[in-house]
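Give me structure tokens for this 78-residue protein.
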Amino acid sequence: MKHSADIPGFARPMVDTMVDFEGGGRAIFGMTDMIADKVKVGMEVEMSFRTLGAGGGIHNYFWRCLPPRESWLGKETK
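Here you go.
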């Protein structure tokens, strides 16, 4: 069973992010769990392994980046 928003994919805010890893390495990832207008160049991010979808009995996963949890976790409870 697939659960998703009723917003078509092309209408969702999408943020592609170039991530420089500590110790070296750089890659482009889609950002998740963010507010698009609060994303800034140079901000810290965390990595999260997320599902992209499933089809034909095959589940597809990929890495996404997101703002550090301490930057948004708990703010709703205060």
